[in-house]
Design a protein that fits this description.
8 helices, 9 strands
Length: 293
């Protein structure tokens, strides 16, 4: 992905040196995956008016060869004609890209915009919005009960692209049955290697950190099963388990080992080396499942 596009929150630039959010080839494949294997896109709204990578013709054409560059700048016609949306709206803070709805996602959503769309797509905008929890709440309020929410957000190595980079655990914890969501899936892909896509396992009691040498794009989908007036405060899964099951025996052994500095340094080096090998994004990582979308 040398070149990806975005709306106001995601920005736009002709420079191939800057990676921005929007709909590229992998995004199109993921949207088709959601439409064909999960539920129809139906009435759709995008956060920010999203542009289309002009080189994604083969993927928009359902895998068939396409020697032509895409002539559409924005995603609406592509989503309706080629993916399956019945209609497409967009919401943005400014009218400079002619979004159909003007609203600052830092602020609560007005009642007249709530519960109206079958699919809400964040094409890489929420990392640029300071009040991220409010923006996430707005996405859920835009979505009707039984609808779906889809995100394309930056993971590793997007430092200073926006205000935030995201971890898969955030979406698994937020989009949980306790908060009214079902069938949450998180995928990741290395930018520049579209065929290398992984499904990330839900968090367990053991932390599963992920490291990469390239930029990582997270692709998230979930179903809003029921509306909750208030979202349950979320915490990292490994901390929850540690708080509940703190082992005094484990702490005793750690204290004993620390009393022997040489032994402690050797054990720490071996453990950290093993952890580093296990963290890298690769087919051998047990927390990832290689998939093709």
């Amino acid at each position: 992905m040398d070149r990806v596009w975005g709306g106001l929150y995601g920005g736009s630039s002709p420079s191939k040196k800057v990676v921005l959010m929007g709909f590229d080839a992998q995004s199109i494949r993921f949207l088709r995956y959601c439409h064909e294997t999960r539920q129809k896109l139906g009435k759709t709204i995008t956060i920010g008016r999203q542009e289309i990578d002009p080189y994604a013709g083969r993927d928009i054409n359902n895998g068939k060869p396409s020697g032509k560059l895409i002539s559409y700048k924005y995603c609406e016609e592509i989503l309706v004609k080629n993916i399956g949306s019945s209609s497409v709206d967009s919401i943005d803070i400014s009218s400079y890209e002619k979004a159909s709805i003007l609203h600052d996602m830092n602020q609560p959503l007005p009642r007249e915009l709530c519960n109206k769309w079958d699919t809400v797509i964040d094409g890489g905008s929420l990392e640029h919005i300071y009040h991220f929890p409010q923006a996430m709440d707005n996405c859920s309020r835009l979505c009707r009960t039984g609808g779906q929410i889809i995100h394309f957000v930056p993971g590793n190595n997007f430092l200073n692209h926006g205000f935030y980079q995201f971890s898969p655990d955030l979406f698994y914890q937020l989009y949980s049955p306790e908060n009214g969501y079902e069938d949450t899936e998180v995928f990741m892909t290395e930018i520049g290697f579209h065929s290398r896509c992984y499904k990330v396992n839900p968090p367990t009691g053991k932390r599963s950190e992920l490291m990469s040498g390239k930029r990582i794009l997270l692709m998230v989908c979930t179903k809003l099963e029921k509306k909750n007036d208030e979202i349950k405060v979320i915490y990292q899964k490994d901390y929850q388990v540690e708080w509940a099951q703190k082992s005094s025996l484990d702490s005793w052994w750690k204290n004993k080992i620390k009393q022997v500095p040489v032994l402690h340094r050797i054990i720490r080096f071996v453990v950290e080396s093993a952890r580093d090998r296990a963290r890298w994004i690769s087919p051998s990582n047990r927390n990832l499942k290689r998939v093709r979308i």
